[in-house]
Write a structure and sequence with these properties.
- 2 copies of one chain form a homodimer.
- Helices cover 33% and strands 23% of the residues of chain A.
- In chain A, helix 1 (8-20) packs across helix 4 (130-149), helix 4 crosses helix 15 (470-484) and helix 9 (278-290) crosses helix 11.
- Chain A is globular.
- With 490 residues, chain A is of the alpha+beta class.
């Protein structure tokens, strides 16, 4: 078994082992990318990948493994008992997004990965899932095998939780967590490996994420009982027949301030928005010093932030506001030129980003109540199932041990991470950070990848002076685990 | 030449001639349908049809004919001098709508017409343009040839004006009228043949039509300078980036009354709406007695008219209101489920029906002014060219001679036409009813056809106890011409 890796000397030996097994480690990434675990389209491929991963857990030396059945795709569980002081849960996703409709140019088959040169990097691996998330997953497993290969013991006990339907909204992961609370309760934190560097090599560490509530408002003559009820009719009739499109426009308009539609005027909309914690304010002070507003503007193609805010004010707005975004609006004739119709219905896809202490259902409830109170009880509020239509917010306490340990590890390799109170986007982290587990969730790692859900998805193999390559990423995972081996993680 | 047809005996002789030439007359309809004069796609077919029609005018005995070039498709002009007291302009369209994308089931080629049985009629002719408007056109020409064939003279002088781009919005007909005012100024009225009976055999006589002004409002981050300016961005950014979709919603909402969006609150929107004339009020009184509200509701799939109006009030609202209809609205993601984007733009296709004494440009001008005054100067108002995007209203005085003569002719064959002050729809009649010509425009005829612009378009050949067939329609055209031969038409 060897002694537990926890010193610089040991890290050096493991690093040498990693350097000596580069080719083999690249092959491991290729191996898992070749399995077409497309959550939306290929349940057989997903199951094959689950079996493959369970095999890896066994090979590593897990004392317990299971391909756990859910109502959706299986969760692969593995328990590696290192006899260590700390137990870390490791979150993986082993499914990928479908490739149908995508036009890949660098390789002919997204499931036949290749290592190719790609400026500004020396080489990258190209394939579906390369960065999201099979590359980082395999790199992390390579790191674990390298600790063992170099003759040491992994410094923390591990509880692997690998889900096979992240791309379908992680709908059944919560079932696994609830049904396996006993198995997971030893874990005091959960870690998710990823290539966290951007093109400049900078690293972001988000202590959670916003939630999201997505739904559709539909105004139809059929439900209203007025206007065209069955189909669009000739628009000359608009002189004596009302319009469901105008009704939707006015209903929507009643929800925001006409002078500033970013302000929602739905009663109680902001009631549950908590004031920032003391620690968050400190993070924001620090973040304001390094947050590159001009780069963000450029990357997003925007000229002005809301109200021309900047610095700390901008970040406060970014983190401590819930939103009511219109993802899309449609109704009637939308083709070229004109068509003389009075449409029978119109709809808008809405979305609210949730922050502490909002609940997953409150936006829909408040919108429904607003519509009812404003005489729009016929307008339907459709909620979606399955896809990422509802996610809760997630929060990891900046004071949690794993946070400082992760920052320390980054600093040791010369990187000062930008620490965000949470990311502005949404992910199913709450399944770990909220009851029954209530443990901190950290995603970290060196390296870089891009084009997730897009053609020519890649993950860096050999980097440059800013972005680390595969070997450095693997070594950094070892370094992180050494940090996680001592003291409290939660 | 023969004497001018103007008596019942003569009409009987001509009727016998029509009955004796049924097969030949059907062949004439087929002949012109076979020419693929698709305005939008086949300029060669259009030109071929123009030549064909000029040939018919010559064959009839026109002293002057011309295929008159415009910037679009040619207008075919013909002058038939009968030495009569009255001169009538005859409006034809000889172009048809394209068939691409349509699925015809009764015949294999829309340009190879066939006569088929079709309940509740004994037979109909099926083909592109059968009812719109080659069937009625050919029937009217058959009537004229029959008058001559029976040995009589046509009882009025005729000035044919046949346009080849009605389906493209009659964009250049106005040029022809302006450049040929001298040629047309003898005409004291203009007549357009059509199968004016509905399925119950009832006849409507519309003394004009509403105008229409169609345009699109576009709100984009690019023009606004705020929000996403180049492309949709991740919706998590909505916390600090504004939304062009919400901006469009609020801009639209500012144009109508939230409690009743059928009421437009744009300054001066209704200013030029004239009070109904004394004669119109009389027509509406009469119309209210026969206007079948339940049938209109059923045909349009509606349960309630605006404000639950009925009778005279409903008709007053139908005729004496200008509208601001949303034909369509679109922006962002409109596919299944959800997509987390903040769109870069949104647009709405708007339409206003114009009535006396509105101008063709005032709606766009007032909307533009409203947007500017409400801080939305960045929102674009796009006007369309070519298609039927702008038409002026048209009005034929109920006291005009041709109106009473047409009603008299209908009554003689046992039909009491519903006389509408104007139709709620729009058509390019104003080119005749407004300066420089300023003559009354009447569309009339027996018979029935349907599915204009749709598959299996048809025109009735042999009718039933309510709807007249081809021979009766041709006889009725002769009757109308006899009525038009005496007294003032304007």
């Amino acid at each position: 078994m060897g002694t537990q890796a926890h010193s610089v000397t040991e890290l050096e030996k493991i690093s040498n082992y990693i350097d000596a097994h580069k080719a083999e480690h690249i092959e491991k990434i290729k191996e898992i990318i070749r399995i077409p675990s497309v959550a939306a389209e290929d349940p057989e491929g997903v199951r094959q990948c689950a079996k493959y991963l369970e095999g890896k857990f066994k090979e590593l030396g897990c004392s317990e493994t299971e391909v756990y059945e859910t109502k959706g795709q299986p969760v692969v569980y593995g328990h590696y008992d290192a006899g260590a002081e700390n137990t870390l849960a490791v979150y993986f996703m082993y499914d990928v997004k479908q490739v149908s409709g995508e036009h890949w140019t660098l390789i002919s088959d997204p499931f036949k990965p290749e290592v190719l040169p790609m400026a500004p990097f020396k080489s990258v691996i190209v394939g579906r899932g390369a960065t999201n998330s099979k590359g980082p997953l395999a790199a992390f497993m390579n790191a674990l095998f390298s600790i063992r290969g170099a003759g040491f013991q992994i410094p923390v006990n591990l509880k692997f939780v690998a889900e096979g339907e992240e791309e379908l909204g992680s709908s059944h992961l919560i079932d696994f967590v609830r049904e396996n609370t006993r198995r997971l309760r030893d874990a005091t934190a959960v870690f998710s490996p990823g290539g966290s560097q951007n093109l400049n090599g900078d690293v972001t560490l988000a202590l959670g994420c916003k939630g999201v509530s997505e739904f559709e408002l539909v105004c139809s003559g059929k439900k209203w009982g007025r206007g065209p009820t069955e189909r669009a009719i000739h628009s000359s009739m608009n002189a004596i027949v009302e319009s469901p499109v105008w009704r939707l426009v006015q209903a929507l308009a009643s929800m925001t301030d006409p002078r500033d539609p970013s302000k929602v005027v739905i009663k109680g909309f902001y009631d549950n928005v908590a004031k920032p914690e003391e620690e968050d304010l400190k993070l924001i002070e620090e973040l304001a010093k390094v947050y590159d507003e001009e780069s963000v503007k450029k990357a997003n193609g925007i000229q002005h932030f809301y109200n021309d805010l900047h610095g700390k004010e901008l970040l406060m707005k970014a983190f401590y506001t819930t939103t009511l975004n219109i993802q899309g609006i449609y109704g009637g004739y939308t083709g070229p030129l004109v068509k003389t119709i009075l449409p029978e219905k119109a709809a808008a896809k809405l979305e609210s980003r949730l922050i502490p202490n909002q609940t997953m259902t409150e936006t829909v409830e408040k919108v429904r109540k607003h519509l009812d109170e404003h005489g729009y009880s016929d307008i339907e509020v459709l909620e979606f199932e399955g896809e990422n239509a509802v996610d809760d917010w997630s929060r990891t306490d900046p004071k949690a041990g794993i946070v400082q340990k992760t920052i320390d590890a980054y600093r040791e390799v010369g990187l000062q991470p930008q620490v965000w109170p949470y990311s502005l986007g949404s992910a199913p982290r709450y399944m770990f950070t909220k009851p029954p587990l209530s443990i901190p969730f950290i995603g970290a790692g060196l390296g870089h990848g891009a084009r997730a859900h897009a053609p020519d998805e890649y993950y860096v193999i050999e980097g440059n002076d800013k972005v680390r390559g595969l070997a450095d990423s693997e070594k950094f995972y070892v370094r992180l685990l050494i940090h996680y081996s001592k003291g409290k993680l939660n």
